[in-house]
Design brief:
alpha/beta; Aspartate Aminotransferase, domain 1; Aspartate Aminotransferase, domain 2; 2 domains; 4-stranded mixed β-sheet; 13 helices; 14 strands
C-alpha cells in the first residue's frame, strides 16, 4: 500500500477551487445517471428532467435510428480498428458523400471528435503562420491554438465581435504567412452567432481563413427558405448556409455528437486541404475510428433529417421560444438573442452557485452548472439546453422553477 503522497504537484489550485468544490459536493456534478426514460433521468433514487443534454433533435431516442445499429454491427463488427489511413469502412465514404451534399461544401473529412480536430487540424493548417483566436472561443479551440503555438505559430487573441481589433492584428502579420482566424459558430453558452459575413469579408481582404466551430449549430440551423417551418431554416446544414455565406476562405468544423447523437465530427474544406490532412493530421494517421454503431446512426440520422428534420426543428423552436418568453416575462438577463435552444441564466451572485444547483436538483431539473473558471465570475450561472424530446409538461415545469428562483432574487435581471 502506498503511504507517501503521489509526487504530482498541481499548479494554480486556487483557480479550480470552485469547480472542485462542486465536483465533490454538488449532485449536479460528476453524477452517475442510473436510468433514462425519454428526457427523464434517474440519479440514485431521484428522477429529474434532463435539460443538460445536447441531443437537440432527440435522435438519441429515435426508434428508426436505434434500429439501424444491428445490421451495421453484424456486417462490420463493433469496431473496425484500422486508422483511417490504413482502411476506411465504406460507411465513412458514404457519410462524407452525404455530408458534403448536405453542407454544399467542396469536400468533407470525418474524424472521431471535434477535440481531435482542433488539436490536430489547427496546427496542421497554420504551420508557422499566425493564428488569431476569438477571446471567448471554446476551450478546445484554445487548446488547439496553444498546440499550434508550441509548434512555431504566432498566436494573437482578439475581443469577441471586435472586427476593428482583429483587422489591426491581421495588418500586423507579415505578408505571405498563413493567417487562420479561429472562433465558435453558435456559441455554446449564449446560443448566439457571430457576424460571419463581415468576418469572412475581412478575412478575404487580408488573405486569411476563417476556421469556425459550429458544434451547436449543425443539425439545428440551416439554409433559409420561403417555406421553412421555423426561423432555424431548413435541412440543418449549419451556420455557413444559414447566414447565406459561401465557403470561400472558410473552413467549417462540426460534429454529430449533439444534434445527431453520434460519436463523429467533420471538417468541411477544399479537397486539396483534405488530402493534406490525410498525411498531416494525427487522428487520420493513428487514431482508432468511431464505433460502427456511431457510423450507422449518422447515416440513419441523415434519412430522418431528410424525412422529418424540419418538423423536428419546428418543435424544438416552439419549445425554446416558450422558455425564452418566460425568461423575458420574468425580466431575466438572458444573453440569448438568437432564439436557439441554448439558454444561459446568470446568477445575481456567483456565491449562490451551490445553493441554486441544490435547489434545481431538489426541484427535479437537471442543467449544466457554469461555475468559475468555466465562465467569468460575472457570468456564473447555469445553462439550459432544450431538445425536441422534451415534453410540453417538462417545459412548463422548467418555467415554473425559473419563476421560483427569480422570486428568490437568485437570478440576474435586466437593468432598468
Amino acid at each position: 500500500m502506498r503511504t507517501a503522497p503521489f509526487p504530482i504537484r498541481f499548479a494554480d489550485n486556487a483557480r479550480w477551487a470552485d469547480l472542485e468544490r462542486l465536483r465533490a459536493g454538488s449532485p449536479m456534478y460528476d453524477a452517475v445517471v442510473d436510468e433514462v426514460k425519454g428526457r427523464q433521468i434517474r440519479i440514485g433514487d431521484r428522477w429529474l428532467t434532463d435539460f443538460a443534454s445536447c441531443n437537440y433533435l432527440g435522435f438519441d431516442l429515435e426508434p428508426d435510428i436505434i434500429a439501424a445499429i444491428d445490421d451495421a454491427v453484424r456486417q462490420w463488427g463493433t469496431h473496425p480498428s484500422w486508422s483511417r489511413l490504413l482502411g476506411n469502412p465504406r460507411l465513412y465514404i458514404d457519410i462524407e458523400d452525404r455530408l458534403t451534399e448536405l453542407l454544399g461544401a467542396e469536400d468533407t473529412l470525418v474524424l472521431p471528435t471535434i477535440t481531435h480536430i482542433h488539436m490536430s487540424v489547427i496546427p496542421a493548417l497554420v504551420g508557422r503562420g499566425w493564428v488569431f483566436l476569438d477571446g471567448q472561443a471554446h476551450r478546445t479551440i484554445y487548446d488547439g491554438c496553444i498546440a499550434a503555438r508550441g509548434l512555431g505559430a504566432t498566436m494573437r487573441r482578439f475581443p469577441t465581435g471586435d472586427l476593428d481589433a482583429l483587422a489591426a492584428l491581421l495588418k500586423a502579420a507579415p505578408r505571405g504567412v498563413t493567417k487562420l482566424i479561429c472562433l465558435d459558430g453558435v456559441n455554446s453558452m449564449t446560443g448566439n452567432m457571430p457576424d460571419l459575413q463581415a468576418l469572412a469579408a475581412l478575412a478575404r481582404d487580408h488573405e486569411a481563413v476563417v476556421y469556425i466551430d459550429d458544434a451547436h449549430g449543425f443539425g439545428v440551423i440551416g439554409e433559409r427558405s420561403p417555406d421553412e417551418t421555423s426561423p432555424y431554416g431548413t435541412r440543418g446544414n449549419s451556420l455557413v448556409r444559414h447566414l447565406g455565406e459561401s465557403y470561400e476562405n472558410i473552413i467549417l468544423v462540426g460534429g454529430f455528437s449533439k444534434a445527431y447523437s453520434s460519436l463523429l465530427a467533420f471538417v468541411a474544406l477544399p479537397t486539396r486541404l483534405k488530402n493534406h490532412l490525410k498525411v498531416a493530421a494525427a487522428p487520420y494517421l493513428y487514431s482508432g475510428p468511431s464505433p460502427t454503431a456511431s457510423l450507422a446512426t449518422v447515416l440513419a440520422g441523415f434519412i430522418v433529417n431528410d424525412e422529418r428534420g424540419d418538423q423536428i426543428r419546428q418543435s424544438l423552436y416552439l419549445k425554446t421560444a416558450r422558455v425564452l418568453r418566460a425568461t423575458a416575462e420574468l425580466g431575466l438577463a438572458v444573453p440569448n438573442t438568437s432564439g436557439l435552444p441554448i439558454v444561459e441564466i446568470p446568477l445575481r451572485s456567483a456565491a449562490d452557485i451551490d445553493a441554486v444547483g441544490n435547489y434545481l436538483f431538489d426541484a427535479g431539473v437537471y442543467v449544466t452548472l457554469a461555475a468559475y473558471p468555466l465562465v467569468p465570475r460575472s457570468e456564473v450561472g447555469f445553462r439550459i439546453q432544450i431538445t425536441a424530446a422534451n415534453t410540453d409538461d417538462e417545459i412548463a415545469d422548467l418555467c415554473g422553477v425559473l419563476a421560483d428562483l427569480a422570486a428568490q432574487d437568485r437570478l440576474q435581471h435586466v437593468s432598468t
